[in-house]
Design brief:
This protein is α+β, with helices and mostly antiparallel strands. It has helices at 7-20, 79-88, 140-150, 194-199, 209-218, 256-260, 275-285, 336-343, and strands spanning 2-6, 32-39, 48-55, 60-71, 73-78, 93-99, 104-109, 112-119, 136-139, 165-172, 175-181, 185-192, 205-208, 223-228, 232-237, 242-247, 269-274, 295-301, 304-311, 315-326, 331-335, 350-355, 362-366, 372-376. The longest helix has 14 residues, at 7-20.
Length: 391
């Protein structure tokens, strides 16, 4: 194998590949990035492509990039070391040459020369190609935004099974719900995509959060191709240069429509607030939270909402927030940081809180965030007074 490639054309793909492979655990072939040089069948002499392949058994990545190929071949190298070396080299042409006798890969750039031990390609199992049949075109920008708006509510704990997954489920003809749930927060984006809705499994498509993290690194703003097989989700860039394959999860997912229905039940209270003013007030009140009391308390009195926070070691704070309130609820408490995080995912200048009770789910929506709903569970209020008016 002998080829020349420009650093600028391969470094992004190399970093994506390196983020997938295990750093220490697993067999040596899993810790390797596999390089395959192929000449262009109809191009001029010296034209071709360099294909990078990496897997941790679960995630599979393939990327192909233009290269000047003098001699075809395939080799594996320690992925972390190889990527770190190329990352620190200046831009420009880099030569890669396999020395079969010494079993090393020679990396050269100008007067710089490096040798890396090569892995025998006999250990590498070829990654399957992207399945073309029934693939659908989708917006990478839209998928990235969807993941940003939902994934913060997905549990980080793999032992929670379905709660550690993103769920894509068809709920009506042509409509898809993208959901994230961790037990005390829930986020949902509802969107229209006839093709995707028709191909989703009846029980929904589940992807674990640890794979969503890699998907977000891989996604760009361009269009992508998507396909769903029995065990995996397959994605490919619109230009066909890169593919990513992720395993599906077979966990069961809670019926999210059942608890969303509580927001439209009789007897709910509603609070309309300015998003920015509320976030700024919460940011100040958060100073007075501590490990034993992480909440902001909302006291409702018509157009005036009183926000309070207190801690035995931090003191107490009170703010008045102009708002529109209707209903019978008198008081509720929310974890301050969680509520701030949720409000930060909205774009609307004003938000509507639908309050089902002092200990029931609260739904948050905004007029400029169509089909986006976030639920947060309030904290149980324990009466504790550290400071009084006399003090």
């Amino acid at each position: 194998m002998f080829l020349t490639v420009k650093k600028e054309q391969v470094i992004d793909g190399l970093q994506k590949a390196a983020s997938i492979i295990p750093s220490k655990a697993g067999a040596a072939y899993l810790r390797s990035i596999w390089l395959q040089a192929v000449k262009s069948p109809e191009g001029a002499a010296g034209e071709g492509k360099l294909t990078l392949m990496a897997t941790d058994v679960n995630i599979e990545f393939t990327g192909s990039y233009p290269a000047g190929v003098t001699e075809e071949g395939q080799v594996g190298v320690n992925g972390r070391a190889f990527v770190e070396l190329l990352r620190r080299l200046p831009g420009g042409d880099i030569q890669l040459k396999l020395d079969s006798a010494a079993n090393t890969l020679l990396v050269e750039q100008g007067r710089r020369s490096y040798k890396l031990p090569a892995a025998d390609p006999v250990w590498f199992q070829a990654l399957p190609p992207f399945p073309e049949e029934n693939a659908l075109l989708w917006s990478g920008d839209f998928l990235q935004e969807l993941l940003d708006r939902v994934s913060f509510c997905i549990s980080d704990d793999d032992s929670t099974e379905g709660l550690s997954c993103l769920c894509l489920k068809s709920v009506e003809p042509g409509k898809v719900d993208a959901c994230g749930l961790n037990g005390h927060q829930f986020a949902m984006v509802r969107f229209i995509n006839d093709e995707l809705a028709a191909r989703l499994p009846e029980q929904g498509l589940l992807l674990q959060k640890k794979y969503i993290t890699e998907l977000r690194k891989w996604l760009g703003g361009d269009e992508i191709m998507l396909n769903i097989s029995e065990r995996r989700v397959h994605l490919r860039t619109g230009n066909g240069n890169e593919t990513l394959s992720l395993p599906r999860s077979n966990f069961s997912y809670p019926d999210h429509l059942s608890f969303l229905s509580r927001l439209s039940a009789d007897g709910v209270s509603r609070l309309d607030v300015d998003r920015r003013e509320c976030m700024n007030a919460l940011d100040r009140l958060n100073i007075f939270n501590n490990e034993s009391d992480r909440c902001t308390y909302f006291q409702f009195a018509g157009a005036d909402v009183v926000l309070t926070a207190q801690g035995q070691e931090t003191g107490s704070a009170t703010e008045h927030l102009e708002a529109e309130f209707s209903g019978s609820l008198e008081r509720i408490a929310f974890p301050t940081r969680n509520l701030m995080d949720i409000l930060g995912h909205f774009q609307s200048p004003r938000l509507l809180f639908t309050l089902t009770g002092a200990e029931g789910p609260c739904g948050i929506t905004g007029t400029e965030d169509p089909d986006y709903t976030v639920l947060i569970m309030p904290m149980k209020i324990a009466e504790s007074t550290y400071y009084t008016e006399d003090e």
